[in-house]
C-alpha cells in the first residue's frame, strides 16, 4: 500500500512537471514567434522607416495597387520645360563673314532672318553696398542741429541687409544647412567674408520672433474646421526625447514642440481630423466633429499579417480597401461628391463579411500563453487586435467613403513631418527647447508659404502683415 501511494505521488509530481514544461515550451514558442515577427517587419509592412531596412531593403511595391494609369505624365499635365522669353536681359548678335557654300563675302544687307537661342544663367554673384546718408541740418532760426531719420532696419555704421539675412535663414531652416556651412556658402557665393555662425543664429532667432504673429494666424486658420491632418515624430532636445506635433491641411502647416507625445492639440474644434489611431487623439480631442483613420497604416499592417502571420482574411481586406479607394477616386474624377447607395452598401457588406471571417478564424486558434507576471486583459494576436480595431472604429476607417473631402491616407501629415527626420540626419539634436521651437515656428511659415505657391526667400524679407495678407 505504501508503494502504491509513493507511485501515485511520483506520478502526480511528474504530471505537474510535464505541465510546467508544456507551459514553458508554449511561452518560448510564443516568444520565438514574436521575435520572428519583429525580424520580418520592414518599412513596407510596418511603420518602420526605410533607413532601418539596412542592406536587405524590400523591393519597392505600392500598397495601393494598380490605378489603371499609364507611366509618365498624365493627360492635362502642363509640364515645366524651360521656355524662351520675349524679354531677354541681354542680346548678343553673331554674324558670319563668308557664305558657307561658295565662300563669297556677306554683308548686313543680306540678313533675312535670325535664329534665336537663349541661355538662362545667374549673374556673377556679389554683394551690393548701399550707403545711406542722413542729412544734418543747422536751423537758421534757433541754430539747433537736426539729423534726418534713417530707414527702418538701418541701425549700425556697417551691417548686412535683409536679403542676405533672409538667404542665411533660408539656407539654415529650409535647406537644413548647419550654421558654419551657411557662412561658408555665403562667403563663396557673395563674398560675405566677415559672416560668422553666431550671426546666422541671431538672424534665425530674430526671424522667429518677427514671425510670431504669422504663426498665430496659421494656427487660427487651422482651427476654423475642415479636414486637418495630425501626426507626431520624436526628436532629441538637450539630450531628452521630445515630440514634434503637426497640424496641417492643403494650405496651412503648424508645428509645435512638446516633451510629451500625448500632448495632442486638444484645442482644435469642429471639422474632421485624420490620424493614425494614436489613442490620445480620441481621449483628448472631443471638440472635433469626426475622426478619420489613415488607410496606408492599415495596408501596411494587413501586409504584415498576410506575409508573416499567413492569415487568409488579410489579403481580401487589402483588396477591398484598395478597390473602395479606386471607386471613390473614379467618382471624384467624374465630379461626383458621393458614391451611389448600392455601391456603398456593397462595400460595407463585404467589409463586415471579411471581419466576421477573420474574427471566426481567431476564435478557432488556441489562446496565447500568459507570460509570468503579466497583468491586464488577455493578450491577442496582432491580426486579432487589428480586426477588433477595424470593427470598433468602422465609421472612422471608412470615413473617406462617406466624406469625399477626407483622403484615404494621412500622407499630408507624413510629408509635412519628413523634413524633421532629414534635419536630424544632418544636424542631430537640438541643444535647447527654445532653439527647437524657433525651428518649428519658421518651418510653419515656410511650409505654409510653399503650399500657397509663394517664394520663400522673398517672404523672409517681408513684414508679418505683408505675409499674412498673402496667405
UniProtKB/TrEMBL annotation:
Domain named Transposase IS66 central: residues: 158-437
Protein name according to UniProt: Putative IS66 family transposase
Region listing for Disordered, in residue ranges: 37-82
Bias type Low complexity, positions: 41-52
DUF6444 domain ranges (all copies): 13-81
Amino acid at each position: 500500500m505504501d508503494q502504491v501511494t509513493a507511485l501515485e505521488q511520483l506520478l502526480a509530481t511528474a504530471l505537474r512537471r510535464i505541465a510546467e514544461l508544456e507551459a514553458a515550451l508554449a511561452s518560448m514558442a510564443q516568444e520565438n514567434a514574436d521575435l520572428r515577427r519583429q525580424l520580418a517587419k520592414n518599412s513596407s509592412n510596418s511603420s518602420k522607416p526605410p533607413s532601418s531596412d539596412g542592406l536587405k531593403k524590400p523591393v519597392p511595391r505600392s500598397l495601393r495597387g494598380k490605378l489603371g494609369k499609364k507611366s509618365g505624365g498624365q493627360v492635362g499635365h502642363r509640364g515645366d520645360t524651360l521656355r524662351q522669353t520675349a524679354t531677354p536681359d541681354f542680346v548678343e548678335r553673331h554674324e558670319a563673314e563668308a557664305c558657307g557654300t561658295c565662300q563669297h563675302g556677306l554683308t548686313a544687307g543680306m540678313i533675312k532672318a535670325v535664329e534665336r537661342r537663349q541661355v538662362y544663367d545667374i549673374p556673377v554673384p556679389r554683394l551690393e553696398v548701399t550707403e545711406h546718408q542722413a542729412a544734418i541740418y543747422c536751423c537758421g532760426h534757433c541754430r539747433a542741429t537736426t539729423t534726418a531719420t534713417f530707414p527702418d532696419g538701418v541701425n549700425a555704421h556697417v551691417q548686412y541687409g535683409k536679403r542676405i539675412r533672409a538667404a542665411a535663414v533660408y539656407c539654415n531652416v529650409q535647406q537644413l544647412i548647419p550654421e558654419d556651412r551657411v557662412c561658408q556658402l555665403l562667403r563663396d557665393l557673395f563674398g560675405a567674408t566677415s559672416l560668422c555662425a553666431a550671426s546666422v543664429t541671431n538672424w534665425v532667432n530674430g526671424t522667429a520672433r518677427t514671425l510670431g504673429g504669422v504663426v498665430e494666424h496659421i494656427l487660427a486658420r487651422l482651427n476654423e474646421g475642415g479636414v486637418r491632418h495630425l501626426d507626431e515624430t520624436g526628436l532629441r532636445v538637450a539630450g531628452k526625447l521630445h515630440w514634434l506635433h503637426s497640424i496641417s491641411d492643403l494650405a496651412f502647416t503648424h508645428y509645435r514642440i512638446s516633451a510629451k507625445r500625448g500632448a495632442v492639440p486638444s484645442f482644435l474644434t469642429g471639422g474632421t481630423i485624420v490620424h493614425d489611431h494614436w489613442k490620445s487623439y480620441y481621449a483628448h480631442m472631443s471638440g472635433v466633429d469626426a475622426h478619420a483613420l489613415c488607410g496606408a497604416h492599415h495596408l501596411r499592417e494587413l501586409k504584415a499579417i498576410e506575409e508573416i502571420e499567413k492569415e487568409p482574411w488579410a489579403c481580401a481586406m487589402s483588396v477591398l480597401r484598395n478597390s473602395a479607394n479606386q471607386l471613390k477616386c473614379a467618382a471624384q474624377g467624374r465630379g461626383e461628391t458621393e458614391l451611389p447607395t448600392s455601391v456603398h452598401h456593397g462595400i460595407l457588406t463585404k467589409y463586415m463579411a471579411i471581419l466576421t471571417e477573420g474574427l471566426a478564424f481567431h476564435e478557432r486558434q488556441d489562446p496565447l500563453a500568459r507570460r509570468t507576471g503579466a497583468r491586464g486583459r488577455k493578450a491577442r494576436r496582432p491580426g486579432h487586435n487589428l480586426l477588433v480595431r477595424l470593427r470598433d472604429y468602422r465609421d472612422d476607417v471608412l470615413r473617406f467613403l462617406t466624406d469625399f473631402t477626407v483622403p484615404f491616407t494621412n500622407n499630408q501629415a507624413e510629408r509635412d513631418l519628413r523634413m524633421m527626420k532629414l534635419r536630424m540626419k544632418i544636424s542631430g539634436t537640438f541643444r535647447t527647447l527654445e532653439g527647437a521651437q524657433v525651428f518649428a515656428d519658421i518651418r510653419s511659415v515656410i511650409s505654409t508659404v510653399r503650399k500657397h505657391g509663394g517664394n520663400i526667400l522673398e517672404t523672409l524679407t517681408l513684414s508679418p502683415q505683408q505675409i499674412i495678407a498673402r496667405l
